[in-house]
Specification:
By secondary structure, this protein is α/β, with parallel strands linked by helices. The protein is 33% helix and 24% strand. It is built from 7 helices and 10 strands. The longest helix is centred in the last third of the chain and has 18 residues, at 182-199.
Length: 246
């Protein structure tokens, strides 16, 4: 199949985002971006450039002041809040700087939660799907542990497993390495890279780390709410993956 000819997973046109009531501050200025299946896109740029704001609009966590976001051909602006919530649960996987694992549940139960919520399947089926996801990411040995029994790197890897458990159309990661040391950060980004290259998944990652951005297949640079560069990195040399960290 010709991936380039497929309908984009995400298509944003003319995105404007303003904040404030009396005094309006414009964070995004008419941003256009197209994201296709199998891309690993790093959103980079200085602090305050609009990276996370753009990611939240793409993930239906926020609404633009102007412009449109299309996910799988569906206009997010035309959806009710309940429909947007269903879409997030079924088609988008989120990974944030902090893992947000529920402390009262085991690793396996944390990964089961989005499956139960979105698929409305039996607990046995959700458990099987969650176990399969953990196994695919090499995390089976952690399944019975609670979040407080994990290292920071392990917690973030479990958060990735939770994000992919529902087989989402796209994974959106907002500074997923921001709370990790460089070694564990490399492990996390290498997992994203493998998900793209081995499973054909689509990942958009906000990062301010140049080393991690260089591991993506595409780098889109924002400055003052504008896209100033859009670089195809597939032909560039990538850093070698590092050994798994705890």
């Amino acid at each position: 199949m010709n991936i380039a000819a497929e309908r984009p997973v995400l298509l944003a046109c003319g995105l404007v985002r303003e904040f404030g009531k009396t005094v309006r501050t414009r964070v995004l200025h008419g941003v256009d971006i197209t994201i296709r299946r199998g891309e690993f896109l790093a959103l980079t740029g200085p602090s305050g450039s609009g990276k996370s704001t753009l990611l939240y609009l793409l993930g239906a966590l926020d609404r633009p002041t102007a412009g449109t976001v299309m996910l799988d051909g569906a206009d997010l602006g035309g959806l009710r809040e309940s429909e947007r919530a269903d879409l997030r649960g079924n088609k988008i996987g989120f990974v944030f700087q902090f893992h947000f694992l529920l402390p009262e549940f085991s690793v396996l139960e944390n990964v089961m939660l989005p499956i139960l919520r979105a698929r409305r399947c039996s607990r046995a089926d959700a458990k099987h799907a969650a176990a399969r996801t953990l196994d695919a990411l090499g995390l089976s040995d952690l399944s019975k542990r609670r979040p407080h029994q994990l290292s920071g790197g392990q917690q973030q890897r479990v958060a990735i497993a939770r994000a992919v458990a529902n087989d989402p159309r796209i994974i959106l990661a907002d500074e997923p390495t921001g709370n990790l040391d460089s070694k564990n950060g490399h492990v996390v980004v290498e997992i994203f890279r493998r998900l793209v290259e081995d499973q054909g998944r689509t990942v958009v990652m906000v990062t301010h780390e140049g080393t991690f951005a260089a591991m993506a297949s595409r780098q889109t640079v924002l400055c003052d709410g504008h896209i100033v560069e859009d670089i195809d990195q597939r032909t560039a040399a990538r850093p070698q993956g590092m050994e798994s960290a705890t």
